[in-house]
Amino acid sequence: MWKEVRLLLRGTYRIISGLNGFAYDFKRFLFYGGWRENLSDMEIRNYNTVMAYHGLEKSLSFKNRNPTSGWGNAERVFLRLKIAKMAGDYGYHDKAAKQVLMKFLSLPENIELEKSRKMILEMNSMEFDSDDVHGAILYPLSNYKMGILKHPEDFFLSRYSLREFREDIVPQEQIKRALKLAMKTPSVCNRQAWHVFHSNDSSIIKKALSYQNGNRPFGDKIPNLMIVTTDLKAFFAGSEHYQHWIDGGLLSMSIMYALHSLGIASCPLNWSQTPKRDKQLRKAINISPNQTVIMMIAAGYPKDVNKVCSSTRRPLEEIFSNIELK
């Protein structure tokens, strides 16, 4: 009897806590999401622009492209470039968009069109350019083969979450190198709405970890800590209300594999927290309100001999099925 009552009370508490969390997430999307498409905000404009110019990049990447395709995105990009010119503040995606649009307008099927000439003429007066290469590039099979591992199992199966590290702090240059590798992570429409906060200051790490559950036996000995976030300004449609979690999760795993490739151990630290804890962390750590905290990652060098959880994996047949129609 009492056991059933306890289970019922526990279940009710979980439902109420869930509703509280959903309401908090909705409120944050309402206040900080990009759904208003305020293009005078450089960050929102850049996320909005990359959605359009990435569509052009995909059009340019097809060997047998439809010669009439892409104009809807081209006009969207052009409008946003004009706004950037008027505002006088240019972000990375503004500069990339200009280069991609110029390549699109310069296609043989487009270059002689009156609307192309008008756009090119106006874009030539926009005094911002990108130093990187955007659009589409030829990528031979030999380049793909560079990524083939002779024994991929040796890499993937040798990574474990480590909770006891050497005392040495990982140099920030190595952390940044891992992040550059992880930045190849795909994201929705290539928006790359990520931010990574890093510290090797023990007092800052201690403060941040005081709001995270599960680090208490080892948190005071973590040499490096990262907090992975995604920017709500990058997400516009209501259907994207979970996308920031997806993109942030993808980057987080890439970071841990990148660290592993450099001989640096890591441990993911869950941030499925209550609204109260989330607010407490933001009050203590300078994280913009539009940034959603995805997770924390502890990092450090492994010792000569380490003890880890075996954490065996479920049989493949339990998680694999062929796609079938109903």
What's this, in brief?
Residues 158-206 form the Nitroreductase domain. With 326 residues, the chain is an alpha+beta fold.
Question: What is the name of the CATH superfamily of the largest domain?
Answer: NADH Oxidase
Gyration radius (Cα, Å) is 24 Å
| Parts with pLDDT < 50 across at least 5 consecutive residues | none
Helix count, DSSP H or I runs of 4 or more residues: 11
Structural class: alpha+beta
The CATH architecture classification of the largest domain is 3-Layer(aba) Sandwich
- The overall strand count is 4
Q: What's the main sheet like?
A: 4 strands, antiparallel
Instruction: Provide the residue-averaged pLDDT.
Output: 95
Helix-strand topology string: HHHHHHHHEHEHEHE
Write a structural description.
The protein folds into two domains: 82 residues; 150 residues, NADH Oxidase (3-Layer(aba) Sandwich), CATH 3.40.109. Helix content is 46%, strand content 9%. The chain contains eleven helices and four strands, in the order ααααααααβαβαβαβ. Helix 8 crosses helix 10. The chain is globular. The mean pLDDT is 95. It holds the Pfam family Nitroreductase. Keywords: Flavoprotein, FMN, Oxidoreductase.
